[in-house]
């Protein structure tokens, strides 16, 4: 089986994202048997190649779960004792999973990072695999989650303790008396004060998680209606609601996917600041659509980004976009870099945020470019996008940009001069 594992894993992972729950479960069982039977290193390479960067949320979740099994089999010592390149790719993949828009995928990613954390080489590899601007925030979040000693993915806990959730799964029910047993922290962050609101959220969740794509589309329409007619209800429960809705932003059905993106663009101005708690997972889900070959999906994703820039706190967006660029490729990476260029032109009072988040992205891109502006393994020429980002930062920072570049490796300073010349032509 070892010789065929990569091709088989790719096929099974694709089926793990099928719209049929029966096929999903069968593919997952087969992957579990495969992982337990083949050489662990082969299984890990296959799962990383076929699942970590997949657009389908369910595929990434499935790949992360089985990667955790392999990681436990191999152990930190062997994982961090391989070649420098392979280890950096592994750490970068795990950090990506630990920041995924799906809560279960994040759980598996953090569990794997936790396995590596106690190894003396881990911190060094992590610093090499992450730009400096998001290292501290990412690690603080991951270490806090590790301290919580969570032993199972959130969805499993939610299925057993559904009464502790303000948004019920479609298989469960909630009566008005159940609100009384909600933990104080949950009650404080919800607006479940009437039976009518409880029923509205139950119905919304039922539609958004339905097996039939037409019904999921009805759920998207209903969520937009609630944003128009009762935005306070959505804002008060936005984290729980968007844990479900974010899956529709990468739905396996293209019609649902596009409609969810188009509806999201309309929701953002309605929710305003209430949207900020879900900004990071939404940006992750939306930006993955920028590489879609479907013109409608791509256009809808662009519309969401532009609506975000127009109606949300641009400092928060700057951070979210900057954190995301590292994990994008092709057209998606160029589109997000272009928008970073646009929102980097802040007033002088916000310049520290620009320098903290956008500047490390520029150093990363300048240091990674080869040839005439190509990023290794990413596809596409990023020279023009990097030139626009450098031009925006130069307009904001002036001569201090070149002074900062002098402290970077020589190729970075040289590439900066080249792209600024391109920008000024």
From TrEMBL:
GO cellular component: cilium; cytoplasmic microtubule
Gene3D superfamilies: Leucine-rich Repeat Variant (1.25.10.10)
UniProt-listed GO biological process terms: microtubule cytoskeleton organization
Boundaries of every TOG domain copy: 191-411
Sequence segments annotated as region (Disordered): 148-168
Domain of life: Eukaryota
InterPro entries associated with the record: ARM-like, ARM-type_fold, TOG
GO molecular function: microtubule binding
Protein name: TOG domain-containing protein
Origin organism lineage: Eukaryota, Metazoa, Chordata, Craniata, Vertebrata
